[in-house]
Hints:
By secondary structure, the protein is an alpha+beta fold. The protein has a single domain, classed as Gcn5-related N-acetyltransferase (GNAT) (Aminopeptidase, 3-Layer(aba) Sandwich). It is built from 5 helices and 11 strands. The protein has helices at 40-47, 50-53, 66-73, 125-140, 155-163; strands at 6-8, 13-14, 18-19, 24-27, 30-33, 85-89, 92-101, 109-116, 145-151, 167-178, 181-191. The structure holds coenzyme A.
Amino acid sequence: MAERPAATGAAGYRAGVGFEPGFRLAGDGFVLRSWRRDDLEALLRHADDPAVARGLSDRFPSPYTRADGEAFLAGKLVDFAGPLLAIEAGGEACGGIGARPAREARPGVAELGYWLGRAHWGRGLMTRVVACYLGWLVPALVLRRVEAVVLDSNPASARVLEKNGFGEAGVRRAALRRAEGMHDLRLFARDHAG
Ligand SMILES: CC(C)(COP(=O)(O)OP(=O)(O)OC[C@H]1O[C@@H](n2cnc3c(N)ncnc32)[C@H](O)[C@@H]1OP(=O)(O)O)[C@@H](O)C(=O)NCCC(=O)NCCS
């Protein structure tokens, strides 16, 4: 299942510092690369969509304003020293993927997150992106476990994880309140031999 990513450029990543210029992971129909200031218009086109925000935590703004986009690309909302990459497909940034240390600060454990503009859904793209990204991330950060939290109303994301070898590890009942009611959070995990 794991797709071997082609990392190009004189590039690498140092935790706490970020990506070197030119870092790219090339996959089938997409490239993963650092976010750039000139991604703003494409970012707004794809991120300002309630259908995208519905699957994500409340940290993802909805509506997604120009000010939100500018603040994100300026590194004010996220830490670009983390392994955060833009998903480029069809010649423009149309989504994002990243990971951060697990909340309980367990060494070697990271929590995965991702989103993709609706225009690209349903073609297996995120399944391939996750395979490519983790194919690079897990050895690069010497991870022993990758986790992801999925809203109970988001079976497509659960499926993306299952297709990448994740198993369901538990459920946090009624853990999130949304306008439409309470949601369970499903925990998915993939373990890696140390
Ligand atoms: C979830 C998301 C990443 C999926 O991206 P995608 O490129 O469409 O995903 P893929 O095409 O690789 O795979 C989707 C899978 O879910 C399945 N699926 C889609 N809708 C579904 C539904 N309502 N019920 C069950 N399965 C569903 C698809 O059939 C496919 O599985 P298959 O290949 O076995 O047929 C995308 O919809 C998205 O970014 N949503 C908004 C943000 C988000 O939810 N992020 C994840 C937070 S945990």
